[in-house]
Amino acid sequence: MWKEIGDRESGKLRPNSFITRIRSNRASSLHLSNHKELVSSHRGSVNSLQVDLTEGRYLLSGAADASLAIYDIQRATDYEAGGLIAKHKPILVDKQHQNGHKYAISTAIWYPIDTGLFVTGSYDHHIKVWDTNTTQVVMDFKMPGKVYRTAMSSLATSHMLIAAATEDVQVRLCDMASGAFAHTLSGHRDGVMAVEWSTSSEWILMTGGCDGAIRFWDIRRAGCFSVLDQSHSQLGRRPPLADKSTTKVSTSKARAPQRKVGSGSSSKHSGTSKILKHAKGSAKQRLHPGLLTSQDRATAHYGAVLGLKATEDGMYLLSAGSDSRLRLWDIQSGCNTLVHYEIVRLQTSKAIQLAVTQDSSIVFLPCMTSVKAFDVWSGQSRMTLQGHYENVNCCFYSTHDQELYTGGNDRQILVWSPLKLIPDDADECDRRTEQPSAVDEDNWSD
Amino acid sequence: METNNTPSTSRKRVREDDDSVPESNHSLSLEDDLIFSDTMVALHMMRAQFPRIDKVIVEPFVLQSQLYSSVKDRTQVDRELESLRREKVLRVFKLNTGQDDHALMFMEDYLKQMKRAVKSMETKKQGVFPVFEWFEVHVIHSKPEPCIGHQELLSLLSVGGKVKDEDISLLINAGLLTRQLIDSEMYWFAIPNIGSVLKGITQGRKELLSLLNRKKYKEMMLAILEKKRLRLSPLDMRFHLRDLLGSGHLKTIQT
Question: Region labeled Disordered — which residues (chain B) (predicted)?
């Protein structure tokens, strides 16, 4: 570490590579934090966690007992064990609010622009927008079914749409500016469990349904423009540059009448390649071009899609399914990169929240009672973070301090951080606010 | 769930066989391909070690989980299987024995099995049906995927001749196509006449897992385990062990 600082100082190491090296070193050595603890006051399983995107300071958690909590993760409320463990109590817990949710909260996300607002979705069919400072519900959207996930685009400059994934087959976009529903996206054949906005475009939305399909929607057009199919695969991170003879094997595409068809994994089309796979017989019905993909029954997983996470560079998408598989998709070509992550079982009834490090090298996946960290490109399991007593539902990686927050059915939120060396000498007493030189004292000393 | 592995039996252990690549290369270098990846070696080896079953004649097939247990890098296995599938050396079949079970069969073996099934069907029904030939020529050779849609199947078969609905039911009766619960519009390719083997796989898995579960510490020495015979499955212990090790239900520990 000191050598690297010296190298950077002398110019041998570029600042960017210095930063990435330190970050990746810290991210690959996560342990249950020995210096930070979040005191969770939830009485139900923690379903959703998110640290705000603007400052990286506040953690928002939603639980199954309709309570929400916000934690300040950078300033502790009090210290314990002689100042070694920082305990963070929630700033806000809200359970008996008269406008609050009645059933379990399944998702709680911050407004991407600042921490003044946050959005929650719950099994009581409502999506509520709250004002953080006054803890009042400012807006309420009623959905036709249980809300599984909501998402807002962090890149959006021209819209304030909340994408809602519910047990209804249609994905709804709620407009916060007007308080009404903007669009309805139909195409899934069963409830939708996962929804993510693209990290490269403010108009592209990705949804994963209980029917196993992952669809890409451009919200400015009707219908989805791409359905990911697990049998369309490419061998490697990116498809080969030369146009080889081994193209995608579904020959029905070659016979599709008069449609603009993308030719598959081995040639690159810029952005407009539509991957349509429709039967010859039904082409006789004149459907709107955007709705043709509603007949595309390709599945990305053999079960339901439980969680989606796009990498920050916007090039890859990770999807976890109830067939206990985690798949890495190349977004531009729409192909499965066939990276095999060794997973034995995943919980199949609830949606799970995945996390990826900023340089897309490690993916954290909640697998039953532990969180497994896999190397994204090779699929090898790097670490298994075992700490929860029951199933883990959600995890969030904070790139700011390279810490991982996980929440599970045991109502706890655990913090995983790179190990911090605890100095034992008593000269550090001026750091602690409460107990000066308490290290040498015993509990029953006078 | 663990089984214990003692070094004294390591000569018979599956893993050691994979390291001895040069020996197996001699017999395989007679074929066109001189380049072997680990997956190919493992496939050929497991095919050679496929257990003989008394009552049914089945061409050897390999379960995908068995490959995972012998080759370390699973991503490499997946990618090599994909390229072999595209080159039509192998066929992949999705089995209904579990969530994500796939069986791999070499093309020659599959064609042999198919011919046998077709012949028995034709002797039973006392007639020659051209649909089987159309199926082999047009569908199998042009569709390496494990499933096919209804419309596509009809269009590919019509290249051979006029297709009637009864022809598709013939294909299903012969065991060449099945439907699975996931999707009612898709037909899945299947290996004919392996129903009893599939039943043996599921029951053998259950029996082996319950055998280990009943032990005090849920573990057993591999040397002893290998010698046991499963009561409910016609397949041998090594087949099931590889399958369960690959799917993660069992693991081995060196002692």
Answer: 1-26
Q: How far apart are CA A59 and CA A413, in angstroms?
A: 10
- C-beta separation of A424 from A415 below 8 A: no
Helix, strand, coil % over all residues of chain A, rounded to 5: 10, 35, 55
A384 CA: distance to closest CA in chain B (Å)? 15
Residue A18 lies in a domain: no
> Distance (Å) from the C-alpha of residue B43 to the closest C-alpha of chain A?
18
User: Tokens 């290998």 sit at which residue?
Assistant: B226
- Say if the Cβ atoms of A231 and B145 lie within 8 Å: yes
> Which residue on chain A is closest to B147 by alpha carbon?
A231
pTM given for the model = 0.81
Per-residue pLDDT of chain A (446 residues; tens, 9 = 90+): 788 888 888 988 898 988 888 888 888 888 888 888 888 888 899 999 999 988 888 999 999 988 888 888 888 777 777 556 666 767 666 666 778 888 999 999 999 998 899 999 999 999 999 998 888 889 999 999 999 999 999 998 898 999 999 999 999 999 999 989 988 988 888 899 999 999 999 999 999 999 889 999 999 888 788 888 888 888 878 877 765 444 444 333 333 333 333 333 333 333 333 333 333 334 445 666 666 666 777 888 888 999 999 999 989 999 999 888 899 999 988 888 889 898 888 888 889 999 999 888 999 999 989 999 999 998 889 999 999 999 999 999 998 888 999 999 999 999 999 887 766 554 444 444 445 555 555 666 55
Q: How many domains is chain A partitioned into structurally? A: 1
Task: For residue A309, tell me if it sits in a domain.
Answer: yes
Answer whether B142 sits within 8 Å of A302, measured CB to CB. Answer: no
Tell me whether B158 touches chain A (CB under 8 Å): no
**Is A306 among the domain residues?**
yes
The answer for A 342-361 residues in CB contact with B (under 8 A) is 342-344
Domain range for A86: 33-230+296-420
DSSP labels for A296-319? ----SSSS-EEEEEE-TTSSEEEE
Interface test with B, best of A210, A230, A233 (most B CBs within 10 A): A233
Q: With an 8 Å Cβ cutoff, are B78 and A339 in contact?
A: yes
Angle at A28 between CA A27 and CA A30, to 5 degrees: 75
Does the model's ipTM exceed the 0.95 cut? no
> Residue A331 belongs to a domain with what CATH number?
2.130.10.10
CB atoms A252 and B155 under 8 Å: yes
pLDDT tens, position by position, A366-377: 998 999 999 999
Dihedral sign computed on CA atoms, order A337, A342, A347, A352: negative
Q: Rounded CA gap, B31 and B27, in Å?
A: 9
Task: Tell me the one-letter amino acid at A152.
Answer: M
Q: Count of CB contacts below 8 A, A vs B?
A: 69
Of B74, B83, B155, the CB nearest to A340: B74
User: What residues contact residue B165 under an 8 Å CB cut-off, 6+ apart?
Assistant: none
Strands A161-166 and A171-175, how do they pair?
Answer: antiparallel
Q: Check CB contact of B143 with chain A, cutoff 8 Å.
A: yes
Distance of CA A426 to the CA centre of its chain: 42
> Nearest by CB to B182, which of A281, A302, A325?
A302
In a domain, A136, yes or no: yes
Measured over the CA atoms of residue A237, residue A242, residue A245 and residue A250, the dihedral's sign is positive
The neighbour count for residue A220, using CB atoms within 10 Å, is: 9
Chain B interface mutation, best of A210, A231, A322, highest count of B Cβ atoms under 10 Å:
A231
Q: Which structure tokens are listed for A59?
A: 């953690």
